[in-house]
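Form 7-S
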Amino acid sequence: MFDPQSRQNNRAARVAMALFRITQGIKKMTQMEGDAVGLSPVQAQALLFIYHTRSDMATMGNLADSISTTHVTAVKLINSLIDKGLVVKNKNQEDRRITSLLLTDKGKQVVRNLDRWAGRLENALESLSANVLANLEIGLGGVVDSLKKEGYLVVAEPCRGCVHFRPDTGTPEAPHFCAMIQKFLTHEATLKECPEHSPASGE
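Output:
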């Protein structure tokens, strides 16, 4: 007898397996990039976090949340990257309890090589039609939202579209305002990702 629910469950299982295989592929790509520069996968992940995250949000605590580890483990991870000359720590002048993480010039060069995996993934998607890509974007967005709500995923996004973002309210040097931290930001800073991004209504 035809069972729509069973068919739906089977489809969900197939999609889940496809997503798992994609994560395996991404892990392999990032591991290859990391191996080429003498980094473990988690070290590569930490460098990518620092590179893509707004400087004031690239903290030890946010890194730990992003890679789902403890603060102690994150400290050990960063110390290993400091020893390699890839990262430096910077104490927040307004709150000395907060330590920001910055890439050295050497670290930035390493990250540029690591970031090539994203291009490989884009190449794999180019064979899909625009309609399929649009539906895939919507579907994967729903999966990401669900995982985020369940606490399995920390999603960082640039400032635009955030409920705290106030564009074009400052000076030419720092034209945008973040209502959460009560600071004006440069345009370049707002293009970086923020772990505290909260989508505005309708986003």
